[in-house]
């Protein structure tokens, strides 16, 4: 059985303008299908928040949208408990922060005992394994 290395929360080290990418995210080269497949493999649900949702008098909003500076260091998007930051990126629609939460697999009783179903023989067979 192949073991998948699950991405874990890390302390963000934002750059001089306030952007950051989790160091364990592979480079998908803007391949949305590959990114979506990776999220599924990682059992991650993601949510994004946009700088443009902030009040117009927020320092980062003013810096980015009014002064047209890429400096968003003052933007400190918050996330609910249990979520962790995947990255803060600049997009054609403005800065976005994306947070992730791992969905835990269901614990089911199966022929192997009370294990995570995706790790047991029955789970492997259901996925097309031996």
What is the strand and helix layout of this fold?
Blueprint: E1 20-21, H1 32-42, E2 44-50, H2 59-66, E3 84-91, E4 94-102, E5 107-110, E6 113-116, H3 121-126
Antiparallel strand pairs: 1-3, 2-4, 3-4, 5-6
Could you walk me through the main structural features you see in this protein, from its secondary elements to its overall organization?
The protein is of the alpha+beta class. The chain has one domain (about 20-125). Helix content is about 20%, strand content about 25%. It has three helices and six strands; from the N terminus they run E-H-E-H-E-E-E-E-H. The protein has helices at about 30-40, 60-65, 120-125; strands spanning about 20, 45-50, 85-90, 95-100, 105-110, 115. The strands form two sheets. A four-stranded antiparallel beta sheet has the order 1-3-4-2. It has a two-stranded antiparallel sheet with strand order 5-6. It is elongated and about 55 Å long. Residues about 120-130 have low confidence and may be disordered.
């Amino acid at each position: 059985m192949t073991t998948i290395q699950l991405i874990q929360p890390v302390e963000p080290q934002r750059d001089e303008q306030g952007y950051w990418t989790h160091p364990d995210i592979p480079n998908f080269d803007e391949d949305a299908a590959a990114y979506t497949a990776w999220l599924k493999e990682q059992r991650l649900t993601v949510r994004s928040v946009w700088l443009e949702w902030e009040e117009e008098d927020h320092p980062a909003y003013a810096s980015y949208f009014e002064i047209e500076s890429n400096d968003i260091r003052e933007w400190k998007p918050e996330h609910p408990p249990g979520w962790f930051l995947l990255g803060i990126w600049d997009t054609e629609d403005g800065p976005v922060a994306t947070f992730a939460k791992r969905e835990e697999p269901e614990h089911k009783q199966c022929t192997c005992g009370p294990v995570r179903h995706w790790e047991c023989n029955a789970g492997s067979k259901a996925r097309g394994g031996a």
